[in-house]
Amino acid sequence: MSNPIIEAFLLMYAGLFPIINPPAMAPIFLGLTQQSTSAERHRLAARVAINGLLLLFGSLLAGSYLLEFFGIMMPVVRVGGGFVVLALGWKLLNEPGALVEHHAERHAAEPTDSFYPLTMPLTIGPGAISTAIALGSERPEASGMGHLALIAAGAGAGLIAIAATVYICFRFADRIVAALGTGGTNVLIRLSAFVLFCLGVQIVWTGYSALVGAP
């Protein structure tokens, strides 16, 4: 028998992890905070994790309802969000090498702030927000309040786990960079991008199936 809490947790965590990709972002975070002391970097890591958690919670809970307010059907949200995720995964799969250096150089001249650019767009960008909205639209259309509460608990736990992962990776960014190196980090990005691409296909298929089956 399936467990809705575990299923919602895995869907949320597996859906957002390839996009946010905290281990791959850790070297960039380290580069942007290289003028900060170790204690300041640790505080920034905590603030980025909290800011990101709030952004994702807001997107998950309110994003799909705002779209409904404008008359956009949930299956359309799934298809649109799925295509965004799919396109992002395809883009990451086909980007040239040295992705870490590319992102670090692009953000090198920006001020180091816990919200901009560290939280948004570096950690929680349009892809993560769109994915949270799309995943939020995956809630069952007809379920009892108890079942929906379990799904909400699992999804919330998934977001908290993502925020905790961001904090850990940013908190120990110096050790991750030393362990992975540039080549290992780029490989991690490629593998995560493929998972992301497959997830986008799955979300599009879910929305398409609902549209085809709609009266």
Short structural description:
This protein is mainly α and 215 residues long. Helix content is 81%, strand content 0%.
What does this protein structure show overall?
This protein has 215 residues and is mainly α. It has one domain (4-72, 97-190). It is 81% helix and 0% strand. It is built from nine helices and no strands. It has helices at residues 4-20, 22-32, 38-69, 74-94, 99-107, 118-123, 126-136, 145-171, 173-213. Helix 3 (38-69) packs across helix 7 (126-136) and helix 3 runs antiparallel to helix 8. The chain is globular. The model is unreliable at 107-111 (pLDDT under 50).
What descriptive keywords fit this protein?
215 residues; mainly alpha; 9 helices; 81% helix; globular
